[in-house]
Amino acid sequence: MIRHTIALSLIIGFAFIEIAGASEPFTPEQRAEIQKMIAAEREQIRKEVHAEILAELKQNEAGTIGVDLAQQPMNTQQTVTAMPPLVKPALTDEITVVTAGRELSQGKSSIEFSAVAGDSDATIVIGDVFDTSTDDKVASRGWRLKLSSPINDKGKGSADFATLSGLSNGLSLDLALNYATTAKLDSGKAWRELCALSGQQNNDCKLDVIDEQAVNGDSTELRSAYQKYTKEYFKWGHIYELKIGAARNQYDYLDPALSEQSTTKLGWTIGASMGLSTPKRNAMFAFGFDLERAYEEQDSNVYCPDSPSFPVQCVTGSLGTPNKDWNRLLWVEARSAAFDIPFSFRVTRELEDSITGIDMPIYFLHDEDGLFTGGLRLGWTSENGFDAGIFVGKAFDVLE
Question: Looking at residue 343, what is its pLDDT?
Fold first, then answer.
C-alpha cells in the first residue's frame, strides 16, 4: 500500500504544478494520461484498504471467541461477553442434593443427623473439588471423606437400613475420589441467535434469562431455538467414583455358659460407581457396585441353662461370636426434583442373600438461604418391610 501512496502523491504533485499556472508544462495528451493514472491508483488503494479492514475484523472475532471465552469458568449463571459457557458442568447443585455421604456428590461438605425407628446416626462429610478443564472438555476432580457413627443409647444404629450395608451399625470411615467431565463445543452463532430472540444484548446476555423465557415466555421461536441449542451444545455429563472404607462394629453375644460377652470386629468395603447427568442437568441416573466384608450376628433365641434346680433363668441373645459375611451390593439410582422438591430414589440388591432394599430421601426443609437441609427418608426391604424416618443437616465449606 505504501508504494501506491507514493505514486499517487507524485502524480497529484504534477497535477498541482499544472493547475498552479506553470507555463504549459504538460500537453493535453499528457494531462489525460495523468488523470488516468490517478484514477487507477485511487481504485487500487480503495481495494487494499477494504481488504485490510476485513482481515482485522476476522482476527478480532477469532480472538474473542477462541481465546477469551476459553478462560471463563463454566458457570451457567454468569454474564458473558461473546457467547455462553460452552457447556453446563457435569454436575450441578440440583442433582447433588442427596443425604450426606451418598456416592457421586463430588466434594460436598456437610453434617447430618438421621433417625429411623428409634435408631439414630450422625454423619460428617468433608470434601473439595478442583477444576481440571482443558480446551476440549469441562472437567473436575473431587475427594470426599465421610465419618459416620450411631448415636443412640445402645451404640448401634440402622438409620440407613434400606441401603443394605453391613457396615452401618458402627463407626465407619470412607474415602472417595471422583472425576466429572463433559464435552465443550463452539456455539457462537447459535448463542447470538438466542440472545437476539430473548431481547438481550450480545455483550450482556445471560443463560438463566434465556432459560426462564424459553420455559415461561410466549415466543415459540425462542423455545424452538433453545430446544435445538440444548440438544446440540449441551452434552450428557459423566461422573466416575472409586471409594474405600472401613468400619468398627461391636457385637454382643452369649458364650457357651450363657454369659453375656462382647467383641469388636473390623470390616471393610471397596466400591465403584458411575453417573450420567442429563443435558439440562435436571436429573441424574447412576449405578454402582460395593463389595463388603462385614460380620453378621447369630440368630437371636431364648436359651435356658441345663440345671436340675427349678425355676431356671433363661436368657435371650445370640449364641456364639458373629460370623464373617460377604455382601455384594448392586444398586441403581435416579435423582431429580418434582414440584421443586429434590429426591433421590435408590434400589439396592444384595446378591449373596437375595435381599432387595429401597431408599428414598425427600428434601423439603431449607435454611434462610434457600438451601435444602433436611426432610423425610422412606425405606423398604424385602426382609423387614417398610419404615420411615427424618434427617436434618447443613452444608458447609470447611476449606474457606
Answer: 85
Question: What would the pLDDT profile of 193-208 be if each residue is shown by its tens digit?
Answer: 888 888 888 777 887 7
Measured distance CA(84)–CA(200) in Å, rounded: 13
Total domain count, the chain: 2
Given a contact cutoff of 8 angstroms between Cβ atoms, the answer to whether 359 and 349 are in contact is no
Please tell me the least confidently modeled range out of 51-60, 76-85, 314-323, 378-387. Answer: 76-85
62 and 108 in a common domain: no
Domain holding 13, by residue range, is: 2-69
Task: Please indicate, yes or no, if residue 45 is contained in any of the structural domains.
Answer: yes
pLDDT tens digit sequence for 45-70:
666 666 666 665 555 444 433 333 23
Phi, psi of 235 (to 5 degrees): -95, 165
106 and 54, same structural domain?
A: no
Cell, residue 354 = 437375595
Residues 118 and 59 occupy one common structural domain: no
| Strands (E) located in 304-384 | 315-318, 323-338, 341-350, 355-366, 372-381
What span, in angstroms and rounded, lies between the C-alpha atoms of 227 and 180? 24
Instruction: Quote the CA–CA distance of 106 and 118 in Å, as a whole number.
Output: 31
Assess whether 140 and 283 both reside in one domain.
Answer: yes
- pLDDT reading at 258 higher than 90: no
CA distance linking residue 226 with residue 311, whole number of Å: 82
Of 250, 246, 323, 249, nearest to 292 by C-alpha is 246
Does residue 352 belong to any structural domain of this protein? yes
